Structure formats: structure tokens, C-alpha cells
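Q&A log
Question type: sequence-to-structure
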Amino acid sequence: MLKRVIVLFIGITSLSVSSFAQEQTNTISTKTVKTLSKTPDYAMGVSTEKHLKAAIQLFHQFETSGVTVNNFEIVVWGKVVSELKNGGELAELISKQVKGKLKITICNVALNFFDMTGSDIPDNVEIIPNAYIRMYELNALGYNTFIP
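Response status: OK
Response body:
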């Protein structure tokens, strides 16, 4: 009996801690918002679906937290490019998300590698010649850049 109570207690505690941790990651402190707003241009380089979705979520988190955002560019390369074909779930998500300050660019090298063209991807996505060079360019322009 005592063993069951302990297991139950550990289970409830684990759920509470994980729930608390999720809530904490969804808020940005006022101090951090102020610091982030000093350089309001952001770029993330991504090569997986998970990171692409996380980057979109981060953009929205910045907006809802009051972070000043002039530009937020997600630079996409790698295998995830093959998952961005029109008609797919990921392409549909991007079509709905890209507007205003959020921009998604896709590496032409990756498009060629997966035998795709601009007509295969959502219209509101810009094709860039090389994702790595684009990340260096954005960095040189003063963007806060990050590659998970």
C-alpha cells in the first residue's frame, strides 16, 4: 500500500513539474523582453520540421510577450525542404503563418537536391541561392541569428 502511495505521489509530482516547466517556457520575463528588443531583427536557420515549427512558435511568443520585432526570418535548408511541397501539411502551415514581420526563405541548393522548383513550394516563401550564405548575410546586417 505504501509503495502505491509513493508511486502515485511521484507521478502527480512529475506531472505538476512538467506542467510548470511548460508554463515557464511560454512566458518571457520583462527584463528579457527589454534586452531582446534592443536588436529587433531575428533569424533562425532550420533543417528539420521540429525546428521549423519551433521557430514559428518562437516568433509568436516574441509578439505576444511584447518583444520588439522588426523582422523575423526563418532560413530553411536540408531534408525538411522536401516536406514543404504544396498540398502537404507543412506547406499549408507555412502558407497561413508567413505574413507581416515573419518571412520564410528556402535554400535553392536544397530545392535542387530534392529535384524541386519554386512551383512546388508555397507562393509566400522566398527562394534564396544558399542558406549558409544567407545566414552570414543576416548576421552581417545585425540580425540576432540562431541555429538550433
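Response note: The first strand starts at residue 41 and ends at 46.
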